[in-house]
Design a protein that fits this description.
The chain is an alpha+beta fold. It has three helices and two strands.
Length: 72
Amino acid sequence: MRINARGQVTIPASIRKELELLPGTQVEFFMDGSEVYFQKAARTNGANLIRMMRGKGSVRLSTDQIMNLTRR
């Protein structure tokens, strides 16, 4: 794996899936001697999750229709 010109590397899909790393997931980096590790951040920003979900719905319902569905 190589670091690109912007200092980025691609985390393999199998690792992203195993750790449930979605776009926008906060991670923390730390070093142990000459080795670098990362892990999901202990606290995530709910605003990032909402931002990622915005516009992803496949059903066109009004707010009133959604509220009626959740109240049944």
